[in-house]
């Protein structure tokens, strides 16, 4: 395991560089990320490059045995560039140009921006092509799906639509545009979702396609940058760093042309009081690993209390800095880079805390980081291991877009059910993969397929096949609702999944903030929230029935035998404890080994391969935990990770 830091030498006095590098070296830092926001110092005037300072920093780090990740600085073109090319600033939904002086506000399709970006990337990659210290390249910083509304982007959007549909008639049919007389008769009438009008009033089919285009647009830009880097450095290892932002690109598409995943991991420093709230950080880590089904990097890791444009949050409690880094490793990261070496003294993010405070006196957080660096060295052997999982959860960025466009009912959001299922499997000490619906299902024994909202015939076929061949599948409410264009399917829900689950939805009740109840055969009662599918069984057996509302006594959760396998259907969203119970039964029925009796939010993962087996047990709570695994008694301090390597 490699530990690194994000470092901004351009913001610090030259006299600090060597002192900082000395301390990094003594502490055991192995990798340093540089330059993603440094364009104004790398090209202070149009065409006048000034890379000497960066050469010097790389040299200082190299002399101390450290490696470097260089970033293309395209997130923040200098203000002289905007002055010359004012059109290159992004255009907001309301048609106004984004305010300059923040960041990430260049239009990634603007010809002037692309010309200048190409020039600096070319210069930079030629300069460092033979520098052995540069081990990876990061494209830009946290690129979001492209929601720019300038004329160039509108043109690109229409080209995207034309290549998908060929004719406006086909668009009208796909979107059902006859509603509200929305039929187009020319391409020019098709505009992006401008204006302050609330998005839910717009056609969801059109909105879904706009989200798809916005993702494709940024993916095209990422691939364009990757090609530029590879032109001068054919064997460059290229990534871009992502997080769960508002305008999320489709991660699977985003990383297809890149070498590895990088994720910016900022687990919450204040754990929720309500145990029903989903806060599992492990979920996001498993999702990131699943994007390429490979090891990944954390390019920015939590180091202190958050706060920049937002009010400051609580600081990291003892154990968090080390525990969360090791947790990332336990879930498949092999490099963890901490954000940032030292709090910025200036700029909007001066209160986003790094490893060292403004005083420049290394304190408690730094001591914990130093300890982590020592521990990480001992884990080198584990880097060549893999996480093998029998359980997969399907995650679909497109279903998530569709849920954001139409949030179904009060309080409902796409990630809730995948997270509840993930936390239930985690409770039994299992590795869990979170994968694309288009990924290969072979090798898994259980596939949880929550909210298969948009229907793709190939995915449906493969889920049937998986179950028929002996797999266990878990389908939930809001499955089979829409076709691929986000239009409703005229069949009884869950439409394509009806034979698989052996039941259909007679009607549904979007209960939102209200509460209903369900009852199991043994009489135990659980609360339901958000959504209730009232089921009618055909071949399925009933596991739980509603215990309130006018549908009291009707099935809520069912199990069906299909071929050699089993299909569960969960028609509502219920308490965390019921997911735990269901998953325990599912594991027992599937005859799969599991660990019983783990406290909530204590996680076990295993990495295996090359003759090594590593078991990670992590206390992701702020309380000491005592428990037993077989005859082994274990006590873990808050956020402590226990690692056993054999
Ligand atoms: C990340 C971003 C960093 C920094 C950090 C703290 O999302 O990539 O540049 O802004 O958040 O705010």
Share of helical residues: 25-40%
Percent of residues in beta strands: 15-25%
Small-molecule binders here are:
beta-D-galactopyranose
Give a count of the beta strands, DSSP E runs of length 2 or more.
24
What class would the helix/strand composition place it in?
Answer: alpha/beta
Continuous helix count: 17
Give the termini separation: 17 Å
Radius of gyration: 26 Å
- Average pLDDT taken over every residue: 96
Shape: globular
Q: Major beta sheet, specifics?
A: 10 strands, mixed
Strand order of the largest sheet: 11-10-12-13-18-17-16-14-15-19
> Which spans have pLDDT < 50 for at least 5 consecutive residues?
none
Search tags:
646 residues; alpha/beta; ten-stranded mixed sheet; nine-stranded parallel sheet; 31% helix; 22% strand; globular; binds beta-D-galactopyranose
Description:
With 646 residues, the protein is an alpha/beta fold. Helix content is 31%, strand content 22%. The strands form four sheets. Strands 11-10-12-13-18-17-16-14-15-19 form a ten-stranded mixed β-sheet, sandwiched between helices. Helix 5 (111-128) runs parallel beside helix 8 and helix 14 crosses helix 17. The site of beta-D-galactopyranose has 9 residues, from loops.
